[in-house]
Amino acid sequence: MENIQKISQITKNNILKKYSEEYIKFIKEKNDRNKSASKNIYLIIMNNSENLEENIIQDLNEKYFKIKDCLSRCGNIVLECKKEETKNILFSFFNLKKFLE
User: Fold this and answer.
1) How many CB atoms lie within 10 A of CB 10?
2) Which of these, 96, 9, 35, lies nearest to 24 by C-alpha position?
3) pLDDT tens, 22-73?
4) Fewer Cβ atoms within 10 A, N terminus or C terminus of the chain?
């Protein structure tokens, strides 16, 4: 249980942190009821990386459209740049001195 507490404190994943805290609470209650605290209990969480990647892509797309919509509502003209245009914009932003010379 100490290992789970350490991982829970270190992790930035809120879902894992929530499950860990609930699991620790459950085990403590179970130990109090059964009066047993010397057993090792392990928690295995299945993680499907394909689903995780799809969720991240979907989340980014949703945020992109929300930002685009908000900017348009405020009277801004929103244009989608091609990859080469994006590279040039970022290059000019990060290398301002070279770009101005």
Assistant:
1) 8
2) 9
3) 877 887 787 777 766 555 656 666 666 667 788 888 999 999 999 989 888 8
4) C
* pTM attached to this predicted model: 0.39
Residues 86, 84, 52, 5, Cα dihedral to 10°: -50
Distance of alpha carbon 68 from alpha carbon 50, whole angstroms: 27
Joined together, the tokens standing for residue 2 give: 């100490």
Tokens standing for residue 39: 């057993």
17 and 26 in contact (C-beta within 8 Å)?
Answer: no
Give residue for tokens 């394909």.
50
**Domain limits, the chain:** 1-45, 49-101
**Which DSSP string do the residues of 46-92 spell out, in sequence order?**
---HHHHHHHHHHHHHHHHHHHHHHHHHTT----PPPHHHHHHHHHH
Query: Quick count: other Cβ atoms within 10 Å of Cβ 1?
Result: 16
Q: How many CA atoms lie within 13 A of 67 on its CB side?
A: 8
